[in-house]
Specification:
CATH class: Alpha Beta
Number of helices: 3
Distance between the termini: 36 Å
Structural class: alpha+beta
Strand content: 35-45%
CATH architecture: Roll
Radius of gyration: 16 Å
Shape: globular
CATH topology: 2,3-Dihydroxybiphenyl 1,2-Dioxygenase, domain 1
Number of strands: 8
Number of domains: 1
Length: about 160
């Protein structure tokens, strides 16, 4: 498929990411105020490629327990694109993708420059997760669909058993 005709499929939009100063406090507030419960959460050390070059970052995160659309809270990482945006702004929209490199090229061709590759330390290496920045400041995250079960395996089993 030509790059010009590739768009993220909004049926594949699976989370809205919110970067926060204090992950535990934000989880407690959203639980109390919105009734959210939390599923997959923890810390993950990942190689990344940013504008300044390769680095290794530790991501603190928590996903809401219920899908298909989830809220992802991410602990702020100062000096990176994972900083708290202005009040009232989401940080990113996360989409599953069957072809991250092709979709990434399509977003870049539309004026959403590549901001980060996550899961690789190689500047030219393919990555299972990429972040693009829209002119509005919102990031678009593409995540290889093969990571769905890795991220949400147990949660998917629970969700599927409660749907039947």
């Amino acid at each position: 498929m030509p790059v010009a005709t590739l768009f993220p499929d909004h049926a594949d939009l699976y989370h809205t990411g919110i970067v926060v100063h204090d992950l535990e406090k934000a989880k407690a507030e959203m639980s109390e105020q919105l009734g959210l419960t939390w599923g997959v959460q923890g810390e993950s050390e990942q190689p990344v490629v940013l504008d300044g070059g390769p680095a290794t970052l530790t991501f603190g995160f928590a996903y809401s327990a219920r899908g298909p659309h989830r809220i992802e809270l991410v602990q702020a990482i100062p000096g990176t694109l994972w900083e708290v945006p202005r009040p009232g702004s989401a940080h990113h929209l996360g989409y599953w993708s069957d072809d991250v490199p092709a979709m990434s090229a399509a977003l870049a061709a539309r004026g959403l420059p590549l901001a980060a590759r996550v899961g690789t330390g190689q500047p030219d290496g393919e990555a299972p997760i990429v972040m693009h920045r829209a002119p509005s400041g919102l990031y678009v995250e593409l995540v290889d669909r093969s990571l769905r079960e890795v991220l949400f395996g147990q949660d998917l089993l629970i969700a599927n058993s409660s749907e039947g």
